[in-house]
Amino acid sequence: MSRLTILVVEDEDAIRGMLMMVLEQAGFKSIAAADAAEAQKVLDENAPDLILLDWMLPGISGVEWARRLKKEAVHRDLPVILLTARGEEEDTVRGLESGADDYMTKPFSTKELVARIRAVLRRTGKIQGLAQISLGDLVLDTDQHRLSISDKQLEVSPTEFRLMQFFMTHPDKVYSRTQLLDQVWGRSVYIEERTVDVHIRRLRKILGKYGKEDLVQTVRGFGYRFSLPD
């Protein structure tokens, strides 16, 4: 199967080079541009599967270029992830209103970036055939509904499977119990927050049989984080 192509639009050489290296290591093909004008030329000659787009670019800003792209029928469905140092809520809203499919605030974990890229590509149908999510020796197969460590299947409930799927596509980021309830159980369902704790404890017990209980970490006073050791 041919590699999916990511267009990296970033004006800082060091960051652009780092992103391209991370993408290549994750199995993607990467092409690069330093600003929106150069990116437009690249886009005219190539058909990338996703664009990683820095907000603050010289000339036309990334968010403005994304807005223009999404108005063109030929590029309307091209996934865009904005990268920015802006972390205010109103900036997030502006970024997503431009038509971007996701939004990441610098500095970010490269593991989370790759996971979010794959999540967007799955959501937009670019890699609908990719049924497996792999982090280290942990593999989650969405088609087979199986979770395994080193090829050994773990016995988890459907809820715990969804919880692990969310964690594995959003590593290294802290989520409150309320956020986990919304993402895993759904906003239309009323469930007490302590239900999250019960499932976390069960997951840790299951993972603990393989020495992996520390993958799900408690962040005191806020919630939980899923993280693999570097």
UniProtKB/TrEMBL annotation:
DNA binding happens at which residues? 130-228
SUPFAM superfamilies per UniProt: CheY-like
Positions of the Response regulatory domain: 5-121
What cellular component terms from Gene Ontology apply here? cytosol; protein-DNA complex
Q: Where is the OmpR/PhoB-type domain?
A: 130-228
- Origin species: Candidatus Methylobacter favarea
This one is known as Phosphate regulon transcriptional regulatory protein PhoB
What SMART domains does its record include? REC (SM00448), Trans_reg_C (SM00862)
Spell out the PANTHER family in the cross-references.
PHOSPHATE REGULON TRANSCRIPTIONAL REGULATORY PROTEIN PHOB, REGULATOR OF RPOS
Q: Which gene encodes it?
A: phoB
Q: Which residues carry this modification: 4-aspartylphosphate?
A: D54
Biological process (GO), any one = regulation of DNA-templated transcription
Provide any one GO MF term from the record.
transcription cis-regulatory region binding
Role this protein plays:
This protein is a positive regulator for the phosphate regulon. Transcription of this operon is positively regulated by PhoB and PhoR when phosphate is limited.
